[in-house]
Design brief:
Structural class: alpha/beta
CATH class of the largest domain: Alpha Beta
Strand order of the largest sheet: 1-8-7-3-4-5-6-2
Helix content: 40-55%
Number of domains: 3
Distance between the termini: 44 Å
CATH architecture of the largest domain: Alpha-Beta Barrel
Radius of gyration: 24 Å
Number of strands: 16
CATH topology of the largest domain: TIM Barrel
Number of helices: 21
């Protein structure tokens, strides 16, 4: 018997079940270059593979919108140009050309600091995997063949793998790679499947068909458990399921503390499917809609109409509140179709609201789309990375310009739409009392705020332990912002990771936070703490 401890819990739960090894065929690209007279044949192989993948993704996109973005990437002219240029100019065989181009695309996402965006590299690699399988003529594994309950173990799982997940049979998931914001993590949470990700070396420690015990909440896997251990985990599983049922029973209860303060529980999302996954938690709305996802998984700056369709659907689903953060790119977030100038310190450079205010036409496309969507629900506009009053006023002025343009078109919108801002820099904290007179609401982004206040790069492993939003400097900043907002009568929310941290709930309630916006999987636990608050 061996006990393995894991750091990355993607979805809580306890399971005692046998293992199903979900292993992919060898998709290593063939080595070697090609002759000039082989170029056209290799290009045709790629085109055939691409067409087959596009057809397959088109069918999947009709059932699950996750694959609409995959379809865009597969059709991306830059992907095609990248593969074809490697075949023509470098004389790469088609397998090497696909592999290298996919690596380049995936690196755009993988190099980002934002965990949510970093995990989008898996979407790109999913497409590459499909294309490589077609070129090699091999069949990919299929979870649809399962006939009995199992814990699925895999090196990693992609969105296309998760489509076939049947929660009646997939009782747990363990992957060697991946993060807590990956598609498999999100889907596992929505389906209530205990999941651990990033478990290095686990595939070499477990055999197919072998029973394991897993407590995903505690981050424990027991390999080759004895009879007493199995019984212990079965008892823990029964107790956990009773607890989950109790928490789910609280979902219909508004989050009100025992002393009568109403707290709003919202979800952070990157697309419409994320909203659907969060709705069963009885959320009070969406506290952060990351609109950059629309830009980053596209082949061009999305048009007003393309954005409107998405925002409208989101507004109808999250009718109580939909807070759309305007485009937040730059820093670690790049676009495949727009070349940013290299900057020595990109996190301190041309990003977020600075880009939007410089690229006014692009910004107004987004603002008009958001305004039009506001006719279908309670939509709020949130501006990121504001550090000066001039920026906030200029952004609001552009909203007013867009309102006039929509009036001239005769298109409906919420004429009293709320316009707020992220508090995520020391400057915005210091000026919070002034901003509160101009903004309709605040949302504290603790991820960047902590990084900037402590001058700690959370992606740097050598100093990662210093990244701590419980640091007194960060706590004082949060307190200052909440007090400034309340003095002017505006609501103050939080959409950073701290909002979903159970250890932080009591502190944030003490400080007077009005709205907690977090990943959907944390909402039940935070709700209970609020309800028990004296």
């Amino acid at each position: 018997m061996e006990q393995i401890r894991v750091e990355k819990t993607a979805s809580r739960g306890i399971v005692v079940e046998k293992v199903y090894m979900y292993l992919e065929p060898d998709l290593t690209p063939a080595t070697g270059t090609i002759a000039d007279d082989q170029v056209q044949a290799e290009i045709e192989k790629f085109e055939a593979a691409k067409n087959a993948v596009v057809e397959e993704l088109g069918q999947l996109a009709e059932k699950n919108e996750i694959f609409a973005a995959h379809l865009e990437i597969a059709n991306d002219f830059m992907l095609q140009d990248g593969v074809e240029s490697k075949i023509k100019d470098s004389k790469s065989n088609v397998e090497q050309a696909i592999s290298n181009t996919i690596d380049e695309f995936a690196m755009i996402f993988a190099s980002m600091d934002d965990e949510y965006m970093k995990e989008r590299a898996a979407d790109v690699r999913d497409i590459g995997k499909r294309m490589m399988a077609v070129v090699k003529g091999v069949k990919l594994p299929d979870l649809g063949v399962l006939t009995e309950p199992v814990v699925v173990m895999a090196k990693d799982m992609y969105p296309s793998d998760t489509v076939k997940i049947n929660p009646a049979l997939v009782k747990g998931i363990v992957t060697e790679e991946g993060g807590v914001t990956s598609h498999v993590s999100i889907i596992a949470k929505s389906l209530g499947i205990p999941t651990l990700v990033g478990v290095k070396g686990i595939l070499s420690k477990v055999d197919d068909g072998e029973y394991i015990c897993m407590d995903a909440g505690e981050g424990i896997i027991v390999v080759k458990p004895d009879e007493d251990t199995e019984k212990e985990y079965l008892d823990k599983k029964a107790a956990y399921e009773q607890e989950r049922a109790r928490l789910e029973g609280l979902r219909s209860t508004p989050a009100v503390t025992k002393d009568g303060k109403r707290i709003y529980l919202c979800a952070n999302v990157g697309n419409v499917q994320d909203i659907r996954n969060a709705l069963p938690m009885n959320i009070d709305g969406v506290g952060l809609f990351r609109s950059e996802f629309l830009y980053m998984q596209n082949t061009h700056f999305p048009t007003e109409e393309e954005q409107f369709v998405v925002y409208k659907e989101a507004a109808e689903l999250a009718s109580q509140e939909l807070t759309i953060r305007t485009l937040d790119i730059g820093g670690d977030k790049e676009l495949s179709y727009y070349e940013f100038e290299k900057e020595e310190n990109p996190f301190l450079g041309w990003r977020a609201i600075r880009i939007s205010l410089d690229m006014k036409d692009m910004f107004k496309e987004q603002l008009r789309a958001i305004l039009r969507a506001s006719a279908f629900g309670h939509v709020r506009i949130m501006f990121p990375m504001i550090i000066a009053m001039e920026e906030l006023k200029n952004a609001k002025a552009l909203v007013k310009e867009c309102m006039k343009e929509l009036d001239e078109r005769g298109q409906a919108y919420d004429k009293n739409i709320e316009m707020g801002m992220m508090i995520e820099t020391p400057a915005s904290v210091m000026l919070a009392d002034e901003f509160a007179k101009e903004a309709d609401f605040f949302s504290i982004g603790t991820n960047d705020l902590t990084q900037y206040i402590l001058v700690v790069d959370r992606g740097n492993k050598k100093i990662a332990k210093m990244y701590d939003y419980f640091n007194p400097a960060v706590v004082r900043a949060i307190k200052q912002v909440i007090e400034a907002g309340h003095k002017e009568g505006i609501k103050v929310g939080m959409c950073g990771e701290m909002a979903g941290d159970q250890k932080a709930v009591e502190l944030l309630l003490d400080l007077g936070l009005d709205e907690f916006s977090m990943s959907a999987g944390s909402i039940d636990y935070v709700r209970e703490q609020i309800l028990n608050r004296e």
